[in-house]
Amino acid sequence: MFVCQTPRAVYAGENALNALSILLASYQKVAVFSDRGIEKAGVLLKPIELMQNAGCEVSLLLDIPSEPTCDQVQEVVERYRLVGADAIVAIGGGSVMDVAKLCSVLSGEHTVRDLLADASLARRTVLTVMVPTTAGTGAEATPNSIVLVPEEELKVGIVSSQMLPDAVILDGEMLHGLPRHIAASTGVDALCHAIECFTSKKATPFSDLFAIEALKLIFANIESACLDEEDIQAKSAMLLAAYYAGEAIACSGTTAVHALSYPLGGKYHIPHGVANAMMLMPVMRFNFEACHDDFERIYDALGEAGAADKATWVLDRMESIVKILDIPTKATRYGISVDDLDLLVTAGLNVQRLLGNNKRTVTDEDARKLYLELL
Ligand SMILES: NC(=O)c1ccc[n+]([C@@H]2O[C@H](COP(=O)([O-])OP(=O)(O)OC[C@H]3O[C@@H](n4cnc5c(N)ncnc54)[C@H](O)[C@@H]3O)[C@@H](O)[C@H]2O)c1
Ligand SMILES: [Zn+2]
User: What is the pLDDT of residue 45?
Assistant: First the structure.
């Protein structure tokens, strides 16, 4: 058996943001979650105006930290409870959406740490609308929310279908002003979601469908979307791709790239997309034989022709994306040295939930070699 869980409605394309007026027409109090970087980019003005014109009283929660700890999320939960809204609109990247998703299922007395221990306590009582401003995590499509557990120095996913949103709005204009380096690393995160889910042991016909469409869009648009500020068409294509890749996660599961990048974020605070961009090529080369047929299927689905070796073409294409977008791939830049290897290997191998999805088994020695490639 395999399952495909999705948000109830997804609005995409030109002026998709206008859907806010329809969605919120019968709601009185809306809590808007976002962060200061997004506010500064100026992309909050239009959605707030649309909500106010729809007759909503809007409360702003704009201090959502990037990649927050569970305790930081709890502080936001306390503030949100004082607002008492009947709808939540998250306008932001994965960090903002994940925090908003947790608030939406914590209206009672439970805490974020309670959910870490038992996600079945999650109960959603408000309407939720996700408006991603990075393309991206695909958090708008998944039942997951990821928090840093400080005492374990590890990022942990809380998973509950209660966190699947009522509506998602994919509007390329929301990516306007996204700094180039963030567009690049978040775009490669979406690429990782798609390629890992397609090559995952947990892949299903549903996740394959979403992953392939994501890969087609990413391969065709990622450079323009990141390097040309005015190319809203490419940015819109990347938003759709990130959403599809998020659906692929919801239907399948990521593999060794995400597993081994978790400690890079949890202990060394390397941003999620950058950590995945670092691990992408070492893991893909490591997986090459085990995933050879998958890579060939991707090549065929892309409609490419003439390559001497189809699988190598796909590998090279991914490598060229990371290079052209100039994402830092050396962990030394973040102060990591050979002295950190033992810790990284132990922490990485703990993420068996994802490592178990990898077609080639990753041993201690393999993990050590993979991390060594970052130094
Ligand atoms: N829930 C899921 O399924 C899922 C999946 C993957 C990753 N994640 C999590 O998502 C988080 C990362 O999210 P992210 O990569 O989207 O980054 P982010 O949300 O942390 O944002 C990064 C930075 O980009 C800025 N920014 C975002 N949109 C902008 C815009 N349009 N203009 C200007 N600045 C903008 C923000 O202000 C912030 O400083 C991590 O915590 C990761 O673990 C969640
Ligand atoms: Zn990711």
Answer: 97
pLDDT on residue 109 = 87
* Ligand 1 binding residues, C-beta < 6 A: 35, 37-38, 41, 43, 66-67, 92-96, 98, 133-134, 136-139, 142, 144-146, 155, 174-175, 177-179, 182, 186, 189, 272-273
Closest ligand to Cα 196: 2
State the Cα–Cα distance between residues 38 and 123, nearest whole angstrom. 28
Using CA positions, which residue lies closest to atom 33 of ligand 1? 178
Phi-psi region of 59 (alpha: psi -120 to 50; beta: other; left: phi over 0): beta
Question: Would the pTM of this model clear 0.85, i.e. be above it?
Answer: yes
Of 188, 91, 62, the residue nearest 136 (C-alpha): 188
Q: Tokens 């509506």 — which residue?
A: 167
Instruction: Evaluate whether 238 touches 222 at the Cβ level (below 8 Å).
Output: yes
Identify whether the C-beta of residue 95 lies closer than 8 Å to the C-beta of residue 64.
yes
In the chain, the domains with their CATH numbers are 9-175 (3.40.50.1970), 180-372 (1.20.1090.10)
pLDDT value at residue 182: 97
Quick one: which H or E segment has residue 262? helix 256-266
Residues of the chain with pLDDT under 50: none
- Measured at the CA of 74, the angle between CA 70 and CA 75, to 5 degrees, comes to 120
Cα–Cα distance for residue pair 316/2, rounded to 1 Å: 32
With beta carbons less than 8 A apart as the criterion, state whether 210 and 251 touch: yes
Using the atom order of ligand 1, give the atom closest to the CA of residue 246. 3
What single letter denotes the amino acid at residue 121? L
Give the number of the atom of ligand 1 that is nearest the alpha carbon of residue 145. 1
Instruction: Indicate the top mutation candidate among 36, 73, 146, 163 to test ligand 1's pocket, ranked by most ligand atoms within 8 A of CB.
Output: 146
pLDDT value at residue 336: 96
